[in-house]
Structures are given as C-alpha cells and as structure tokens.
Amino acid sequence: MRLSDATLAQVRAPVRTPAYDRAATRVGVVHFGPGAFHRAHQAWYFDRMLASDPGLAICAVSLRTPDLRDALTPQDGLYALAEKDAAPSVQVIGSIKEVLVASEAPDAVFERLMQARYVTATVTEKGYCLTTGGALDLGHPDIRHDLDAPERPVSVIGWITEALRRRKAATIQPFTTISCDNLSDNGFKLKRAVVRFATARGEPELAAWIEADAAFPCSMVDSITPATDDALRAQAAETLGLTDAWPVQRERFVQWVVEDRLGADASLFAAAGVTVATAVAPFERAKLRLLNGAHSTLAYVGLGLGHGTVAAAMDDPRLAGFVERMMREDVTPSLHAPDLDAPAYIDEILARFRNAAIVHKLSQIAWDGSQKLRFRLLETASEALAAGRPIDRLAVGVAAWMRFVVRQAKGGIPIVDPLAQVLSDTASACDGATADVARFLALEAVFPLDLARNARFKVAVSDAYARLNADPDGVLAR
Ligand code: CS2
User: Fold this and answer.
1) Which of 221, 287, 292 to mutate to test the pocket of ligand 1 (most atoms within 8 A of CB)?
2) pTM reported for the whole predicted model
3) What CATH architecture does domain 281-476 belong to?
4) Separation of 355 CA from ligand 1 center, angstroms?
5) What is the pLDDT of residue 469?
6) How far apart are CA 138 and CA 126, in angstroms?
7) pLDDT score for 370
8) 388: CA distance to ligand 1 center in Å?
9) What residues does each domain of the chain span?
10) Superfamily of domain 8-277
11) 373 CB under 6 A from ligand 1?
12) Which of the two ends of the chain, N or C, has the fewest CB atoms closer than 10 A to its terminal CB?
C-alpha cells in the first residue's frame, strides 16, 4: 500500500506524521525547483510552521520535468524524510500540497503566484542565468526565450518577473522572494536579475516597482542531502509500512538563515528554527567558502585518487589534513565574520563530513563545477590574492576540477554541467600538460577576467595541475 492522505494513519510508530490538519492548509508558498534538497530542508521548516499558520502550504513547481509530480501526486504530496545519524529517524512531511509542472500547467502556476505570500527557489547556481560578474546574462538562451515569449517563461527569472507584472496590474502587493541556493548574496543577485529582466522587457515602471516594493531577502541554506537511492526507498517502505516512490534523506544538522525582511512572519520563521538575521553575508560566506569549498576540493581531488564518497575521502589522511589546513589557514582569513567561532565551525563541518551514516557521492558534488567554483574557491582566491595571502591550496581544487573534466571527456563519460559541450571541446584540445590550464582559464563563463589574467593565480593552478598527476602526495602535504 502506498503513502497518501488516506493511509497516513497507518504509518508505523515511531515515524512522526504532520502535527496539523492537512485538509485545512492553504497554499501560501510557490517553490521553484522541488529537488531533494528543497524537500529535505525548506519543506521541513514549512512543515513545522504549518502547525501555527495553515496558510503556508507549498505549491511545488518543477520547471520542466514531470517525474516528481508523477511520484508525489498519487501520494497527495506526502513523502518520507530520513535523518541519517548515529540514531537515524524517519518522519512524513506534509507541507507540499501539490506539485505542478510549469511547462504543462502554466495557468495554474500563475494562479498560485497571484495568491502567494512567498516565492522560493532552489534551481541551483545555473538556474539564475548570471554572468561571472553576477549580472543577468541577457544572451542566455532561456532569457532570450523569455524576452521573446514573456507570458510563457522557461526560466525562474522570467516566471518571477511575469508574475510580479500580473500582480502589479491587479494592484496586488509583491510576494517576498527567497533564493535558497548556494550563491553569494543570492537575494540581492536575484532581485537585480529580475529588475534587469523587467527593464529588458521594456517595462521600466515594473522594474521601478520591483526595485522599490519587492523584498528579496538573502538566505543561507545548509544540510547535507545525498541523492535518493534504492536503499533509501527500501528503508522508507520498511519503516513506514507503506511504499513511498520518492523519499529523501539528509544529515540531522540543518540550518536556514534568512535576512530579516520577513515583516510580521519573522517570529513564525524563528519559532520553526530559522535564524532570522540582519546580515546573512557572514553566514553565507563562511558556509560557501568552508563547507562547499572543502566539498568541491574533496570531490575533484578525491575522485582523482579513486575515492567514491566524502566519508572515504575523509578517511584518507592526506586529503583530510589538506582540506583542514585549507579551511583553517587559507579560507578563515577571508570570512570577515567577527561573531563566528571559525575553529569550532570548522570542527563541526569536518565531523559532519565524517558521518558514517551518510553515503554522499563525490560524483554528485562534482556536478556543475563550472557554476560552483566561483562561490566556493575563486572568490576566496581573488580576495587572498588582493590581500597578498597564499593561494596554493585553493588552487589545488581548481586544478583538480580541470583534470576531472579532461579525464571525463577523454574517457567518454558525460559531464554533468550546463557548459558540458564547451568543457568537452576544451578538454579535447588538452593533453595533460600545463598548457591545458590556459585553455580552461580562457573560459570567461567560469573564470572572471581579472583572476584569469592574474599571474600568481595562473602559476599556482599550473603548478598544482602538473603535480596532481606526478606527485599527489607532495601537493597534499602542503
Ligand atoms: C554539495 C552541497 O553537491 C554539492 O555541491 O557541496 O550540496 C552541500 O552538500 C550542501 O550545500 C550542504 O548544505
């Protein structure tokens, strides 16, 4: 029997189920990109809020693929969340009221957007269609599409802008938009992109209205969420006593920091465990540069050394010691977070990486490197260069990414990255020699010009690139 509203009462103890009457909840949040991360993280927070505010159920919108809609609709949006820790636990999340596929049901999506209090997004770094400078890329194919057909958008930028246009026309206040992706200054960048898009659409009044009246709080999101696998499906069925087509899993640690632009809802968010902060940047920088910077370094170097998971990479003392030194000595000086106890935060992150209950594949973290490197390693390196600090260890992750791309391309293994074609073209001209580095640094969609042209950066990456092959122990002993 399958998990659904009708079978919810049969879920076995001690699995927790929604502590509120689902039938009485109403959609107040439209979420774009309901992948595993959203369902393990933000939907869990809203599940907690629904007990005190039934008006904050989620309409989850997949921009293109129907898979999640097909899995969750027969389950009335219900699914299991497993927390993997020394003492694992499972609960049923009830905050997703419906799943829509934007390309198939655009009118229904617009209808929800007219009523939403919040619009949230986890569309990954690439979903924002930004240049390396952080501005909206008007030449991006999805943006060009949405400029041609603004009422049938395909990008999240196009959707938000058109929804705000319709609200303005109907004299309805703008919704609050929260980006939940791993981008520095995510709310600020999203707002600027939407304003730019409205202007490019020839709607200067709309752009001015959004600029003046619409809130786009910045947010930092954190919880390690390995992809769903068959072992998890089997575990969920066993624990629930019901089948679930798409359960999700994460570590127990979970954090959401949202900029205090939530008005009267601030206390509701705080009561659900959200940190409501005046400034999100210190949290965001610390998390992106320490946790995600270390993750990407472990992924690219670790895969090169034959490791498969984060825990296995952390079991390799060369690699564990290397990322720890990178975090403590090279990243910490770039955090500018006077209130943060960086050594304790790093200890906690390293312990989370060692969580044996989590099987977190390095190949999953390696996806979309062209989009992730900037926020995780390159911004840190740029600042270190400007301040005259060493960048040798930061350069190792960057060089390891280049080697990873070359190896995938030469091995005929598809690269999961929005720039896959450009990357495999670049890799096909590479032969493993140091000259390869210049070919990668010429990719303007990955490396900001000033960094690509910086002689110290080029030397550090070239040195790491040459030595990762010939002398990995030497590189990692640094
Ligand atoms: C990871 C992140 O896949 C990746 O790139 O670095 O998803 C990471 O697990 C989360 O940001 C943790 O909050």
Assistant:
1) 292
2) 0.97
3) Orthogonal Bundle (1.10)
4) 15
5) 83
6) 14
7) 98
8) 29
9) 8-277, 281-476
10) NAD(P)-binding Rossmann-like Domain (3.40.50.720)
11) no
12) N
